[in-house]
Amino acid sequence: MHISALPRHQIETTVGDYARMFGALVRGADRPDAVERFEREFAEYLGTRYAILVSSGRLGIHLLIEALGWRSGDEVIVPAFNLFAAIERFCQFGIAPKFADVRRDDLNIDASAAERLITPRTRAILATHMFGHPADLDALQDLARRHGLVLLEDCAHALGSTHAGQFVGTFGSAAIFSFSVLKLVTTFGGGMVTTNDDDLAAKIRRRLSTLRSVQPKPTGVRRAITGAIMDVGTRRLVFSLGAWPVLRALRTIVPDFQQRMMTETPRLDRSFDPARVAPLHPFQARLGSSQLARADELIARRRTVGQWLDDALAGITQVRILQPTAAGRHNGLYYGILAERASALSKRLFREGIDSETSEYLNCAALEMYQDHFVDCPVAREVQSRILRLPNYPGLSRSNVERIASAIRRFYG
Asked: Which of 18, 160, 201, 220 has the most CB atoms lying inside 10 A of its own CB?
């Protein structure tokens, strides 16, 4: 047994990040200035005309759908392997999800499967860049153009990923980014809507102006403390001596305790009210600016660790490594594999001090809550049973990576 355990994620914050955060909390900060600066920096980084900061990715999707003006009974084509919460945002407006199967290589929507689902009521295609791997944007742009559809990009995992040298989030009519705690850039909760469409941006900003603009100080303090606790909890020493032993004990009693704690159970979620969402605190915008300045460095280091994992896992026949398209380059945020007996492998790795996870993403086409929209998606069905996310962050050393690979070889040995 190893004394040092490897957490599944690690938040990449610095002393400078915390200095800016707590400076904004203690001394106060001008919210419009902090928000406008972060939006400007994000738009410049991405190369898009507008970047609109929102309190969460879900709020961003909600406001975007409102602004697009679709009607109940319209349809949107979505990848079957997905997070139910994103699909629920469309369902709340009465927009029917049409589930397209995904590609085994990168888990992204299959353009040919999507084309077979197009009807006169279809309004859009959602491209989710799963685990940071860019979808086949050439094929999806062509499909949207030929059928007069809106292409939306879900870039929750994909900040800094590129297709043909161009950042994802700049190919469709609009895109959504997430800054939740375990993303490449975090604001301890938050998101961004990006677009080059003047009218769309104006509508979203007008709607935002009707919502609360000032966050109560206690809410900001709670968000900062919660984020800091999660940050400290993923640091190697704290995780090894504190979180991991506790999780081991709890999982002995309740085997799926960690899965329950860290993932949302699919459920109907159609009463989302933007007016009840607390706005971002200025410290969150400042944290976003600070983190964005290091995004390229974080991506480069994650890609290096990802390449080490590719090399170390090569030759294990029971494991399939995900691969981007020829034109795609992922940001290294998450490292997914398709593994035989993935659930049992994850449990074995955990016992050896390696915290991996089976994904909260599911074959949504087969969920009972979407039975009226059921379609058989064999690749998504297979992926759900085989997907496993391994630790992948800049703090991992090459010896850590070899330890992960050795443990996997022993499991299949």
From this structure: 160
